[in-house]
Structure formats: C-alpha cells, structure tokens
Design goal:
Radius of gyration: 17 Å
Strand order of the largest sheet: 1-2-3-4-5-6
Structural class: alpha/beta
Distance between the termini: 19 Å
Order of helices and strands: HEHEEEHHEHEH
Strand content: 15-25%
Largest sheet: 6 strands, parallel
Helix content: 25-40%
CATH topology of one domain: Alpha-Beta Plaits
C-alpha cells in the first residue's frame, strides 16, 4: 500500500489517532514521510517498534511505543539502548515478562537507565506463562514506578489468534 493510499484510508476512517505497527515500521519505505504527513494533517501518531533500530529519525511529535525484549524472549541482546536517551515523557516502553528472572532483569534495566523518569514504563506478564497476580505483587513489593499491563488481545481473542 502506498503512502498516499494509507493517508486516504486514514482520512476515510475519521479517527484522530493512528498507530503504525506490524512487523517493524522503521524498516518500511517512506515511513518517516508518512509519519510527518499524518502529523501535519493533525493526527496523533503512535509508532510501535521492537526497539532494535535507531529511533532518532522519528519525528519528535510522534509517540514511540518500544517493546524491550527480555532474556526470556531470547532476544534481549538486540535492544538498542542508545534509544533510551531519545525517549520523551509521552513515549512508552513495554517489557513483556516470562517470569521472575525477566522481572529482575527489567527492574535492573529500568533503574540503570532511569527509564521510569524518562517515559511511561509498562510491565506485562506473558499470557499463560506468568501469573498476573505474581507480577502485580512483585511490582507492589518493590514499589517499582511502572504501570502493570495485560496483553488484552490474549484475553479478548483466542491466545493463538494472529493479526489482532
């Protein structure tokens, strides 16, 4: 789909919020131009990225939602920590946790980089792997300055369903 087709569809929906996600948006041709055009048209633009690529080219008016891969995901070493210095108060970091080891790792990263003071930090349990009550308890016990988050699509739709 071309940039012009995307903008046309967005206008047709009549909604003021656009979230660009799916795969890795930063790898798409004309991505930065699309974001700038949507912002110029008055849309609030959210960009969901996997945190492995440099976000410095993203228009500062857009909100970045960055998924931070934890050791339990097998991809923790792919995180581009230089991005942490580019975050704004309105941006979000999401850690999806498989267990206590991921939680401890996330808490260490949050503290080391002062992430809770830079942006919104969300911790989510992997559906079916980590009991949400356990994660909530750890956050409360440690007084960690984060938001508890659930992968709502896993509760609304079948956990195995893709594309939602």
């Amino acid at each position: 789909m071309s940039r012009n087709e995307i903008v046309k569809d967005v206008r047709r929906y009549g909604i003021g919020l656009v979230e660009i996600t799916g795969g890795e948006p930063l790898l798409q041709d004309d991505f930065e131009t699309l974001v700038e055009e949507l912002l110029e048209l008055g849309y609030k633009v959210l960009i969901e990225t996997n945190g492995t690529l440099d976000i410095s080219g993203i228009d500062r008016r857009a909100i970045v939602i960055m998924d931070i891969k934890t050791p339990g995901s097998g991809a923790a070493e792919s995180v581009c920590t230089a991005n942490f210095d580019l975050l704004k108060k309105c941006d979000e970091l999401k850690f999806v946790l498989t267990g206590r080891a991921d939680y401890d790792w996330a808490a260490e990263v949050i503290g080391k980089y002062g992430l809770a003071e830079k942006c919104v930090v969300l911790l989510s349990p992997v559906y079916g792997m980590l009991d949400p009550e356990d994660l909530a308890g750890w956050i409360i016990s440690d007084r960690l300055n984060v938001r508890f988050n659930l992968q709502l699509h896993k509760y609304i739709y079948s956990p195995d369903r893709r594309g939602v």
